[in-house]
Design brief:
Layout lengths: L9 H14 L48 E8 L10 E10 L14
């Protein structure tokens, strides 16, 4: 049985996390909105709000649809799923992964839960 004095307290755990973060130069990054419900790290003028449809890419972004030939679907993806966001509705049946090459500084994946 552990006595109360043997259990690590919150301050000890926070201290350990802080030391690890500083040692390995790990900094948390958060996206903050200038106004309520805006979804963007710098709140550009074309920023959508939570719940809005993102019909066209926001300023500074390129969009690649899921039917793009450079995106490789590996595993049990089944065409013709119930959820359609663009040209290729998919459903998942088992272990799957999506492969693509990326070169850039920003990546945003938009999809269903």
């Amino acid at each position: 049985m552990c006595k109360n004095s043997e259990k690590p307290n919150k301050l000890t755990l926070l201290s350990i996390i802080l030391i690890v973060m500083l040692t390995f130069n790990i900094m948390p990054i958060t996206a903050k909105a200038e106004t309520l419900n805006n979804v963007s790290s710098n709140n550009q003028s074309s920023t959508v709000k939570i719940g809005d449809s993102l019909v066209t890419p926001e300023k500074g972004w390129k969009r690649f649809e899921n039917a793009n030939s450079n995106i490789k679907y590996v595993g049990a993806f089944v065409a013709g799923g119930e959820i359609t966001y663009s040209t290729l509705p998919l459903s998942v049946a088992g272990e799957t992964k999506v492969e693509f090459k990326f070169s850039g500084t920003k990546l945003r994946l938009i999809g269903a839960k």
